[in-house]
C-alpha cells in the first residue's frame, strides 16, 4: 500500500480531488485511447453520493489505485435507475459497484451460487450480467441445487466459492456490520438477526418490551408500497407481509430452515416433498386454516405471482394427501425448495383470494389488487394504515407463536435523519435501517437513551467486471485489479470500521456455507503490478500497454 | 374587446396550456432512464418477472399508443393506477395534497400577513435603521436554504427547549377517523407549527420586499399628500390608503408562489417528516412510478396555471387600467 496511515479526511479530500484529476487525466490524452496497443480507458460506474455514500466513496478510492497500475479510469456516478438499465438490462459497462443486500432468503446459498454466476443467467436482465461462463463452475452450482444432504451440498458450495475466487468475475470487498439504534429503556430484551438487523421477523415476534410498554414503534426510511402477497416486489413489503402471513417454514436466526406452519417437512425422494401442517390454526377473520388453503396458495401464487413462483423452482404440482398433509412434486431435484420455496411462499386464505380478480372491476390481475385489509394467519394482525404516516399491527393472541409486543407501529420516515430525530426525542423506539457511520457514532457516544444494536450481515459490496470486454476478458487483469482494491482501507475509513473484508460471496457470518480458504485478493498494489508484468503488460509514461502478440 | 371575449380567450389559452403541459410531462417521464422495475432488481426480481410487469403495466405498447391512452384517461378525469401502490393515483394524492396544501397554505398565509405588514412599515419608515435592518433580515431569510432554517428551528424549539415535536403530523399511535378529525385536532396543529414557521420565514421575504417597493411608489403619489393635508392620522394613511393600493402586484405573485410552494414543500416535508406531496413527487420519480409522478406534477402545475388564470381575471377586475387585449 502506498499510504500506511490515512485519515478519513485525507481520503475524502483525495476523493474529491480525484474527480478533478479524472478530467485532467483524460484531457491530456484525447485521441490517445486508441493508441496502438494501449489498454482502453475504464469507466467505473458508482451510485450517486446520496444514494449510497459507501459505494460512491470506495469507487473513487479504487479508481485511484487502478490509475497507479497504469489504467485510465473515469468514475461515473449515476442514478440507480440508470445503473440498472445500463448494467442489468443492456450489459453496457466496463465495471460497476454493487451491493447484494443480506435478506433471510439469501442465507441459503442458491441465489448467490446459481442465479449470480451460472452461465444460464447471462441473458439481458439476468443477474449474471458480468457474463461469467465456466462449465466447471456450472457443474458445482447445479450440484448444490440437487443435493438434499446438507454436507454434500456444503461441499459443492465450497467448490463454487473456490472457483469464483480463482476466476474473479467479481471482486467481493466487504460485508457490512448492521448497526441499528433503539431506545434501551423500552425493551427488556431486543432480538437481532444477521442480514436483517432490527427489521428481522424475529425482532418483531421475540423481542421483549419493558414492563408496561404496550406499543413499540419501528421506523424505516420509506413506506411500504402495498400489502399484496402476490406482488411482494419490494423487500420492505415482504418484510411487513411476513408478519401478517405465515409460511410453512421460516429461516431462523442461524440462517437455517425451521418448521413454522408446518410441523413436519419430509423429503420423500429427490422430487417429492411432504409437509404436514399444524392443527387448529385460524385466519385473522376466525376461519379455519386448512390444507386446502395451503394447496391453493401454492397453485395460485405459482400462477399469478411472478416473484413467488420464481422461488418455487421446478414445482410441478401440489396434492392433498390427507387433511393435514400436502405433497409437492418437483420435475427435478431442487434442494433450495425447503428453505427458499417453503420459506418464502405466503399461505393465503382461499376464501378471500379465489374470487380475485373476477370480483374486482378495473383490476386485470391479482398482482394489481390493492388488498386494502390483508387477512392472514400470521403472528400480527393488520389494524390500519395511513400511507406515509403509520401502519398499526397488533399481536395475534391465537397464534402458536404469539409475539411479546402487543402493538407494533411502523413509522415511515422522509429520510434517515428525520427518523433519527424522532428516536432522539423518544417518539420512536427503534429504526430498522443503518444510519451512516457518523450518526451511529454520535448516537452511541452522545445520546444516553439510545443504544446501538450491531450484527454482521451477509450482504456483500463488490465490483463487477464486464468479462466480454477487453481487458477484463484476461484473468490476469482481473487479478491485478482485485489486488489493487484497498479492501481494508475501505472497511476502516469509508465504512468507519463497520464491516468485514471479504473474498467470497458467502459471508463469514453465514458460517455453514462460508468458505474461509478461497484465494484472497486485495490490499496489495505491489503484487498487482507484478501480476501485470508477468502477464506481459508494459508501462510507458504511466500508461499500460497490452502484451506484444 | 369586452370582458366576455377576454374571458373566453383566456379559457381557450388555458386549455392549450394544459395540453402542452401534460404532453411535456409525458415526454419527460418516458425519456427518463430505467423503468418501474429497476428499483427491485437487487431485491430479487427476476428478468421474467420484470418483463411480465412491464407488459402488465402496458409499458410494452408503442409510445404513441401510451400517449393516446394517457390523454384519454386524463379527459375522463382519471390519473390511472399507481405502479407501486396498486391504488388509484387520485386516492393516494388526495390525502397528501391536502396535507401539503394545509401546511403550505398556512405557511403562505402567515408569510403574507407578516410580509405585507412589515413591508408596508419598511416603506413608510424609509431611510430609518429599522428599514435597513428589515431588509437585511428579509434577504437573509430568503437566501438561507429551507433545510438549514428548518434544522435551526428544530434544534432550538424541539431539541433545545423541548416545546415541540421533531417531526411527523401527529403523535405516534393516534389515528384520525375523519377529515375533520385529521386537520382540526390540536395534535395536528401542534405538529404543524414548526414546519409552518420554517416555510413562513422562507416565503416572507418576497411579499415584504415587493410591498416595500410598491409602497415607495404609492407614497410619492399625489393623493397621499392630499390625505396628509386632510389631517388623517399617519396610521390611517399607511394602512387605509397607501398599503391598500400597494397590494395589487402581490396578487400576481401569490399565484406563482402558491404553485412553487406546493412543489417546494419537499424540503420542509423531508426535514419535518411531513407526509405530503413533495415527498411523494420525488419518490415516485425515483421509482419510475409514472402515473403518480405525473399526477403530482399535474396537480402542482394545475395550481400554477389556474391561479395565474384567476390572477389575470382578478387583475383586470381590480385595476381598471388593465386593457382586455
UniProtKB/TrEMBL annotation, chain B:
* All residue ranges annotated as the ABC transmembrane type-1 domain in the record: 97-311
Report the subcellular localization.
Cell membrane
Tell me if 4Fe-4S is a UniProt keyword of this record. no
Q: How does it sit in the membrane?
A: Multi-pass membrane protein
Q: Which domain of life is it from?
A: Archaea
Q: Is Ion transport given among the entry's keywords? A: no
Residue spans crossing the bilayer: 12-32, 97-125, 146-164, 184-205, 247-272, 292-311
Kindly list the biological process annotations in GO that this record carries: transmembrane transport
- Principal place of residence: membrane
Q: What is this protein called?
A: Binding-protein-dependent transport systems inner membrane component
What organism does this protein naturally occur in? Halalkalicoccus jeotgali (strain DSM 18796 / CECT 7217 / JCM 14584 / KCTC 4019 / B3)
Amino acid at each position: 500500500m502506498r499510504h500506511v496511515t490515512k485519515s478519513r479526511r485525507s481520503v475524502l479530500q483525495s476523493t474529491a480531488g480525484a474527480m478533478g484529476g479524472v478530467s485532467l487525466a483524460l484531457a491530456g490524452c484525447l485521441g490517445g485511447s486508441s493508441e496502438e496497443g494501449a489498454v482502453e480507458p475504464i469507466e467505473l460506474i458508482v451510485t450517486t453520493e446520496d444514494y449510497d455514500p459507501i459505494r460512491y466513496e470506495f469507487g473513487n478510492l479504487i479508481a485511484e489505485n487502478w490509475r497507479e497500475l497504469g489504467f485510465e479510469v473515469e468514475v461515473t456516478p449515476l442514478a440507480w435507475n440508470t445503473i440498472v438499465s445500463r448494467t442489468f438490462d443492456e450489459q453496457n459497462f466496463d465495471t460497476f459497484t454493487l451491493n447484494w443486500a443480506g435478506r433471510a432468503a439469501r442465507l441459503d446459498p442458491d441465489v448467490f451460487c446459481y442465479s449470480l454466476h451460472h452461465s444460464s443467467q447471462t441473458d439481458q436482465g439476468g443477474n449474471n450480467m458480468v457474463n461469467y461462463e465456466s462449465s466447471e463452475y456450472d457443474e458445482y452450482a447445479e450440484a448444490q441445487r440437487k443435493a438434499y444432504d446438507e454436507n454434500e451440498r456444503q461441499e459443492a458450495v465450497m467448490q463454487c466459492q473456490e472457483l469464483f475466487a480463482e476466476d474473479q468475475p467479481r471482486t467481493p470487498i466487504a460485508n457490512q456490520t448492521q448497526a441499528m439504534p433503539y431506545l434501551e429503556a423500552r425493551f427488556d430484551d431486543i432480538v437481532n438477526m444477521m442480514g436483517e438487523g432490527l427489521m428481522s421477523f424475529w425482532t418483531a415476534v421475540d423481542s421483549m418490551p419493558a414492563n408496561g410498554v404496550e406499543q413499540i414503534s419501528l421506523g424505516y426510511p420509506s413506506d411500504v408500497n402495498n400489502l399484496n402477497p402476490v406482488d411482494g416486489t419490494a423487500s420492505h413489503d415482504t418484510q411487513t407481509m411476513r408478519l401478517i402471513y405465515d409460511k410453512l417454514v421460516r429461516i431462523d436466526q442461524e440462517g437455517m430452515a425451521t418448521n413454522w406452519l408446518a410441523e413436519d417437512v419430509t423429503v420423500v425422494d429427490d422430487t417429492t416433498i411432504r409437509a404436514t401442517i399444524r392443527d387448529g390454526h385460524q385466519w385473522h377473520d376466525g376461519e379455519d386454516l386448512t390444507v386446502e388453503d395451503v394447496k391453493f396458495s401454492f397453485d395460485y401464487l405459482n400462477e399469478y405471482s411472478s416473484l413467488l413462483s420464481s422461488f418455487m423452482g421446478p414445482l410441478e404440482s401440489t396434492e392433498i394427501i390427507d387433511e393435514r398433509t400436502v405433497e409437492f412434486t418437483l420435475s427435478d431435484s431442487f434442494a433450495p425448495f425447503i428453505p427458499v420455496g417453503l420459506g418464502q411462499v405466503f399461505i393465503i386464505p382461499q376464501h378471500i383470494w379465489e374470487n380475485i380478480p373476477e370480483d374486482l372491476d378495473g383490476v386485470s390481475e391479482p398482482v394489481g389488487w390493492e388488498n386494502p385489509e390483508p387477512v392472514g394467519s400470521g403472528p400480527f394482525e393488520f389494524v390500519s394504515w395511513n400511507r406515509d404516516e403509520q401502519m398499526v399491527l397488533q399481536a395475534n393472541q391465537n397464534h402458536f407463536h404469539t409475539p411479546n409486543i402487543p402493538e407494533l407501529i411502523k413509522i415511515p420516515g422522509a429520510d434517515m435523519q428525520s427518523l433519527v430525530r424522532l428516536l432522539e426525542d423518544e417518539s420512536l423506539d427503534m429504526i430498522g435501517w443503518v444510519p451512516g457511520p457518523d450518526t451511529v457514532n454520535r448516537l452511541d457516544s452522545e445520546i444516553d437513551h439510545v443504544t446501538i444494536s450491531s450484527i454482521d450481515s451477509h450482504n456483500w459490496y463488490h465490483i463487477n467486471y464486464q468479462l466480454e470486454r477487453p481487458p477484463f476478458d484476461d484473468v490476469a487483469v482481473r487479478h491485478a485489479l482485485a489486488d489493487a482494491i484497498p479492501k481494508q482501507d475501505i472497511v476502516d475509513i469509508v465504512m468507519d470500521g463497520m464491516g468485514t473484508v471479504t473474498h467470497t460471496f458467502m459471508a463469514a457470518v453465514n458460517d455453514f456455507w462460508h468458505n474461509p480458504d478461497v484465494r484472497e485478493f486485495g490490499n496489495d498494489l505491489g503484487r498487482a503490478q507484478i501480476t501485470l508484468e508477468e502477464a506481459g503488460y508494459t508501462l510507458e509514461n504511466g500508461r499500460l500497454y497490452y502484451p506484444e502478440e | 374587446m369586452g370582458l366576455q371575449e377576454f374571458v373566453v380567450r383566456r379559457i381557450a389559452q388555458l386549455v392549450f396550456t394544459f395540453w402542452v403541459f401534460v404532453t411535456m410531462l409525458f415526454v419527460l417521464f418516458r425519456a427518463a432512464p430505467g423503468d418501474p422495475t429497476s428499483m427491485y432488481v437487487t431485491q430479487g426480481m427476476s428478468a421474467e418477472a420484470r418483463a411480465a410487469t412491464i407488459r402488465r403495466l402496458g409499458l410494452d405498447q408503442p409510445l404513441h399508443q401510451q400517449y393516446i391512452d394517457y390523454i384519454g384517461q386524463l379527459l375522463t378525469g382519471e390519473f390511472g393506477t399507481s405502479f407501486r401502490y396498486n391504488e388509484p393515483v387520485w386516492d393516494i394524492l388526495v390525502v397528501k395534497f391536502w396535507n401539503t396544501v394545509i401546511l403550505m397554505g398556512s405557511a403562505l398565509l402567515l408569510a403574507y400577513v407578516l410580509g405585507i405588514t412589515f413591508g408596508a412599515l419598511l416603506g413608510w419608515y424609509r431611510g430609518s435603521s429599522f428599514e435597513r435592518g428589515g431588509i437585511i433580515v428579509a434577504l437573509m431569510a430568503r437566501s438561507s436554504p429551507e433545510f438549514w432554517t428548518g434544522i435551526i428551528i428544530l434544534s432550538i424549539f424541539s431539541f433545545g427547549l423541548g416545546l415541540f415535536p421533531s417531526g411527523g403530523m401527529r403523535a405516534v399511535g393516534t389515528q384520525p377517523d375523519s377529515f375533520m378529525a385529521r386537520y382540526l385536532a390540536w395534535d395536528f396543529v401542534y405538529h404543524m407549527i414548526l414546519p409552518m414557521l420554517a416555510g413562513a420565514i422562507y416565503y416572507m421575504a418576497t411579499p415584504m420586499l415587493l410591498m416595500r417597493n410598491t409602497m415607495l411608489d404609492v407614497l410619492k403619489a399625489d393623493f397621499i399628500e392630499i390625505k396628509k393635508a386632510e389631517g388623517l392620522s399617519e396610521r390611517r394613511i399607511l394602512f387605509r390608503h397607501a398599503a391598500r393600493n400597494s397590494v395589487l402586484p402581490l396578487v400576481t405573485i401569490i399565484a406563482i408562489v402558491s404553485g412553487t410552494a406546493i412543489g417546494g414543500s419537499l424540503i420542509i416535508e423531508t426535514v419535518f417528516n411531513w407526509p405530503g406531496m413533495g415527498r411523494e413527487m420525488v419518490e415516485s420519480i425515483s421509482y419510475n412510478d409514472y402515473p403518480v409522478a405525473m399526477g403530482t406534477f399535474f396537480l402542482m402545475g394545475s395550481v400554477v396555471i389556474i391561479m395565474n388564470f384567476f390572477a389575470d381575471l382578478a387583475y383586470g377586475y381590480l385595476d381598471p387600467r388593465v386593457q382586455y387585449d
